[in-house]
Every structure is written in structure tokens, then in C-alpha cells.
Amino acid sequence: MMKRLTTTLALSALCLAAPAVAASAADALQQRLYDGFEGQDFAPEGGLYYKKNDEQAAGTFTFQSEEKFAGKQGLKLSVRENCASEIENCSERAEIWERPELRVPYDKGVWVGFAMKFADPIPQNDHRYLIAQWKREIGPDAEGDFSPFLALRMRNGKLFATVETNYHKPESASSGSHAVATCPDGQTPVWLRPETNQIRALVATDSAFQPGDGEEFTACSSAIRVTRHGNPLPLPSSGWIDFAVYTRPGADGSGHIELFANGKPIVTVKGAIGHNDFGLLENQYFKFGPYRAAGEGVWTLYYDEYRRSPDCMDVLKDAALCAAAR
Predict the structure, then answer these.
(1) What is d(CA 215, CA 211) in angstroms, rounded to the nearest whole number?
(2) Do residues 131 and 77 touch, judged by C-beta distance below 8 A?
(3) Where is the signal peptide (predicted)?
(4) By CB neighbour count within 10 A (0-12 exposed, 13-18 middle, 19+ buried), where does 48 fall?
(5) Which CATH number characterizes residue 166's domain?
(6) Which structural domain, as residue segments, surrounds residue 56?
(7) Contact 148, 133 (CB under 8 A)
């Protein structure tokens, strides 16, 4: 009898801890998700999982205690060489995904927070590295390449953030330049990608980022507007970085992003954010972890304190900053 009672209580506790399965994306928006990676699997109340596919086969995930931002444990994510030389556009990933039933509507705003740390050695080469990305669901009838509407990236050992939207004719462009454009107020440096019906804006960088590190961002556009708050992104070598991010895509010009790092406001982004192409679905989703174009050796990142909420205070935990971010 005691054994049965103990089992019943354990199952009841698990049910209480797990987020309710959302009846709709609107219901999912109201879920408060959290995972401090304190166990040997993803917490039911966090709604996260490691997706298995060919590219993710390059990755590993480990719940460990040597590197953590808070609590007793953190999550270690690594990628290794896994691409055959004859395969074009191959990537290597160890990304953690939100469960599909917990994704929120594309046109609604939601806060996401997480802490991360770059393991040594930090790659210094001119290569594609991503640490987190926000995307729109892609349906089977969609045609084309749809980059994340917000991404945290690294290149040449420098950290930067980009925002993507459908193609807009720029206010100005320099075909001969190999450096980030200097744009007037109200305009943002962008990389023109007409072949994919997209433009990519450079919205934030760390203090070491140089104009030559963004050689593709040679045009200026008013479609995406950035307000800088006087704080660069932290350097990859600075240790743990605690991000808090608000996203509300809007390819029609109604988009809004707030980016914070270590309790400091970095940028506010407004305007055209994301995509509205045929075949794209109704929800947005977030994933984090090391993602690179085919590379050499092992690349490792640590993560901790994942949280998601419609309420800024659950993620940023600062009333004054939350009030200013409206």
C-alpha cells in the first residue's frame, strides 16, 4: 500500500510540474516555461527537447555540474565534425527546441531568457556560427530559404545579432564596399539577398566588432529601425551572458524586438521583422545551441536558466527595465 501511495504521489507531482498541453497556440502563449537543467533530462515544466535528425547527429548534450550560471548544474552542448566533403551546404548542430505544442502565434509577443557561456577555445575564424535563433514555422507548400527573423551569431570571434525580413528596396547601396555601411538616422545596415526575397539587418554587435567583420551589410534600409541604448553585446570571452529577449514579428512593419544582455538594454528593433511568404505557418519558435557550417574540431557552448513567459518580469526580473521596454 505504501509503495502504491508513493508511486501515486510521484506521478501527481510530475503532472503538476509538467506544462499543460496547450489546446492552441494562443493557450501556449500563456504558459510559463522554465528549465534550470538540474536533472538528467529536460524538465517537464520547460517544454524543451533535443531534436534528432542528420545534422543534429553531429551534436551531444550533457547535464553537468562543472559549468553553471545558477543552481547546481548547467547544460553542455557540443558539435563535432560530421559532414562528408562531397555534401554541399552541410551543417552541424546541437540545438535544443521548444516542443511544437508549446509554440506561440507568430503575431504575438513573448519573452525568452537564457544564460550561455562560450567554452574555450572560442573559434576565431571567418565562419558561420549561431548560438540562438527565432524562426517562423515553415509548411510543406512553402518555397524558398527562410532565415531566422532574429539570430545571435558569431564570426571572427565577434558576437552580433541580425534581423531578417522580406526584401525591401534599400535607400542606398554600395556595390564596391567590403565593410558595414554607415547609415543615417532611421536606417540600418542590411545585407541585400534578393535571390531569397530577404534582407538581413545588422542590429547589434560586441565592442570588438569591426566594419570589415560585416562585409555583406553594405546597404541601408529604413524598413528595419534600430534604437541603440549605449551598450554593446558582451564579448564571447567575458564569461556567462544572460540574455532576455522580447520578440513580436511583423513583416508588415509592426514588428518589435527588445534585446537585453546581463541586465542591460542593448537594442530596440521595430519595423519589418520576419516573413509573410505563401506556405509559412502561424507560429514562431525558439531554439538554442551551437550551429555551424561544416567545420573542424569540437565546438562547445554551455547554457542555463531557460525561461519563457508573456510577462517580462518572469524573464528580465527588473520592473524598471520592463516598464521601459513597452
Answers:
(1) 7
(2) no
(3) 1-22
(4) buried
(5) 2.60.120.200
(6) 33-324
(7) yes
As for how many domains the chain has, the answer is 1
- Residue 216 makes CB contacts below 8 A (sequence gap 6+) with 191, 200
Is 2 within the bounds of a domain?
no
User: What's the Cα-to-Cα distance from 265 to each of 9, 234, 305, rounded to whole Å?
Assistant: 44, 12, 19
Query: Between residues 5 and 322, which one has the greater pLDDT?
Result: 322
Asked, for residue 22, whether it belongs to a domain, the answer is: no
User: Do residues 25 and 105 touch, judged by C-beta distance below 8 A?
Assistant: yes
Q: At 86, is the pLDDT very low, low, confident or very high (cuts 50, 70, 90)?
A: low
**pLDDT at residue 85 greater than cutoff 90:** no
CA dist 188 to 169, 225, 243, 246, 250, Å? 13, 6, 22, 20, 17
Contact 19, 45 (CB under 8 A): yes
The SS3 call for residue 323 is helix
* CB-based contacts of 137, cutoff 8 Å, min separation 6: 103, 106, 280, 281, 282, 283, 284, 285
- Regarding pTM above 0.70, the answer is yes
Provide the pLDDT for residue 253: 97
Q: How far is CA 46 from the centre of its chain?
A: 16
**Long-range Cβ contacts of 297-301 (<8 Å, 24+ apart):** 297/80, 297/81, 298/78, 298/79, 298/80, 299/78, 299/79, 299/123, 299/129, 300/76, 300/77, 300/78, 300/119, 301/76, 301/77, 301/78, 301/116, 301/117, 301/118, 301/119, 301/131
**13-51 pLDDT per residue, tens:** 333 345 545 667 779 999 999 999 999 999 999 999 999
Nearest to 301 by CA among 247, 215, 243, 245: 243
Residue 255 forms part of a structural domain: yes
Rounded Cα distance, 55 and 120, in Å: 23
Residue 8 lies in a domain: no
User: Which residue from 129, 122, 56 is spatially nearest to 93, judged by alpha carbons?
Assistant: 56
Residue 3 confidence (pLDDT): 35
Within 10 Å of residue 190's Cβ, how many Cβ atoms? 32
